[in-house]
Amino acid sequence: MKVVVTGIGSICCLGTLETSWQNLISGQSGIRVHQPFPELEARPLALIGNKPAELLRLTRLVVTLALKDANLLPPLSNCGVAIGSSRSQQAVWEKLASISAFPIDGEAGKSLKDWLETLPHMGAIAAARQIATIGPVLAPMAACATGIWSIAQGFELIQTRQCDMVIAGAVEAPITRLTLAGFKQMGALAKTGAYPFDRYREGLVLGEGAAVLVLESLESAKRRGAKIYGQVLGFGLTNDAHYANAPEEGGWNAIAAIKQCLERSNLSPNDIDYIHAHGTATQLNDRNEAQVIRYLFPQNVPISSTKGATGHTLGASGALGTAFCLMGLHHQILPPCIGLKESEFDLNFVRKARPCEIRNVLCLSFGFGGQNAVLALGKI
């Protein structure tokens, strides 16, 4: 059964779908220096607004945008939901922990009254409530591979005929004190900006954002007369079972995930017209990912990472990358690798947006814990 994308809702520091796409292809970056917490130093971040976003509000907004784009209205009683997040409600948990440690006039008891609404899966539940579905609701959590895993689960719900339609993707609001302190302690945060695959890359820039897709069987889309951005062809998921915060040397399990995805999609490496790389701008990820791509693909395949423009939105990054891949398919334009000035690697990086005949694309995500996720999309 063919599974197609009939709606996209996305938001990041570059704006919503059309605005962010136009900003991206014009070479703009949404990364700015911010100091959201006075006790922590100012640093480059990719915020949507002037202060950190709130997860459930972001979820409801991005679902509304996706439904509007797909020309759908609630209730959608049999629609599935697969919306994940790697940090989920961490900002709320940090606030609750602070209040509980230093209660002021019963504030702790008042805040803890609705603590069940802060559980890790509540983004997906909020979306289910919003569309009034009684269908399956999934809430994947797989570090930076979350977004692609969520889309893969939505794809499978349709392929196995459990649903004709699924809202799938990921939402991330990771600008919290603990997240910033943790990444700083690891030495992973950039000091001036995000420069994927650059010889002088500094590390990642944390960003917030969300992207959800309306997935439908082709039959359902045709019945509705829906516009179609592209087709989900297949996916690959593996785990390194190795280091907690570094990729496996040699990238063999990442290679296995790509091979798995290509086989399921009935594609060969020569069929791929564009690769949206994970490209975090950290030393280890970019070196390992470049090695994996060189091992599997022809040297001329166009490659870019959009994290130099959007920052690293952690669990949402694969879903946001998928949205950009679909816009590339739709407009037949390759998005640029913003932030890349002098490459360390001999690969065909897209320096500026350019028209190109695009039929099949891959989106890659490699997360902490060795989570490897790959998604193949095609023009229909």
Automatic annotation (TrEMBL):
GO terms for biological process: fatty acid biosynthetic process. GO terms for molecular function: 3-oxoacyl-[acyl-carrier-protein] synthase activity. Pfam families: ketoacyl-synt, Ketoacyl-synt_C. It comes from the Bacteria. Keywords: Transferase. Residues 1-379 form the Ketosynthase family 3 (KS3) domain. Signal peptide: none annotated. Coiled coil: none annotated. Belongs to the thiolase-like superfamily. Beta-ketoacyl-ACP synthases family. PANTHER family: BETA KETOACYL-ACYL CARRIER PROTEIN SYNTHASE, POLYKETIDE SYNTHASE-RELATED. This is Beta-ketoacyl-ACP synthase. It comes from Aerosakkonema funiforme FACHB-1375.
